[in-house]
Amino acid sequence: MSHYLVTGGAGFIGSNLVKKLIAQGHKVRVFDNYSGGKKPERLFPEVEYIEGDIRNLADLKKVMIGIDGVFHTAAIPRMPYSVEQPLETNEVNVTGTLQVLLAARDAGVKRVVYSASSSAYGDQPALPYQETMKTRPMSPYGLQKYIGEEYCRLFFELYGLQTVSLRYFNVYGPLMDPEGAYALVIGRFLKQKMAGEPMTVCGDGEYYRDYTHVTDVAEANILAMTTEGIGKGEVINIGNHDPHSVNELVKLIGGDFVNVPARAGDPRKTDADNTLAKNLLNWQPQIALAEGVEMLKKEWNIA
């Protein structure tokens, strides 16, 4: 049994990770400012919850005491918001990440697993997206998450703190907030379906995304924390390598839809090459989109 700290552990991805950790018998401490609210379904009685902000180094140093490994999921993950508020999001996503690494280093934590983002890629000229590609972030958020990766690499090279960065692709699944940053089109469609409204499809609907179930993401985090021989600042894609169009998603959910104008700047397709995750972590996605959507429809009582 290990003692883990999960920053942002009351959020969507963090709470799914916490649930998996406690099921495996680990001791878990969560550090969260509850910017996404205190949703009861995301809180577990076995977990120690400490309210605080990753921008506060003194608080971080306190919560690191006795911790074996840190899962750093805390962030402001909204790309449009980062365009509107680049300074605030930089303070959380860059300065906050730097302070998590500093506190972990000073506390003698063995390894930090960092929640990175596929938004670091931007719009690439070739598919699938490979970790060796030059990053081309198209938003402050994408740039900020990439800077976090580089800090993780430097902290291993300069200070010997083991780090692994996981680039997530379009995460969805249980405990998802339909209003939240990670809800993406799936959350919006399900909310519209529940309200008896038609699903709003942007443009021609031929926009492809590599939807990745949060249970698979949580498993990737645990493997990144526990696998021997890594921790040298690696950056690893976590995606299904099985992109689907918005039109396909509409058919899986079922119901009426209307087409609305496309959003400027949206890449036509994202696709994760997950070879490195398979080779380094022995990670394999288990939940295909059709299965994941059916699970969500049952959770939300959608016929």
UniProtKB/TrEMBL annotation:
Domain (NAD-dependent epimerase/dehydratase): residue spans on this chain: 5-239
InterPro entries, per database record: Epimerase_deHydtase, Lipid_A_modif_metabolic_enz, NAD(P)-bd_dom_sf
Protein name: Nucleoside-diphosphate-sugar epimerase
Species of provenance: Candidatus Magasanikbacteria bacterium GW2011_GWC2_37_14
